Amino acid sequence: MDEIKNGELEASLFSVYTTREAEQIWGLAENTVNKWCNRGKFYENEARKSGKVWLVTRNGMNRLTSK
């Protein structure tokens, strides 16, 4: 496994959100991001399911919300 510098690790770790976190940060209605995930709105590298929880990236959210 490659070593990752603290800044890069921190940036990567804190640029991934649950759907609920993303909705709160971007000011979206409840279940909006979950619906986007289920409808395939995110690119393959922007969202993935971990167990029952969808995880989305900051880049994906910015792309879909035009921010």
From TrEMBL:
Residues 13-65 form the Helix-turn-helix domain. Pfam families: HTH_59 (PF20038). InterPro entries: HTH_59_Firmicutes_type. GO terms for molecular function: DNA binding. Keywords: DNA-binding. This is DNA-binding protein. It comes from Bacillus toyonensis.
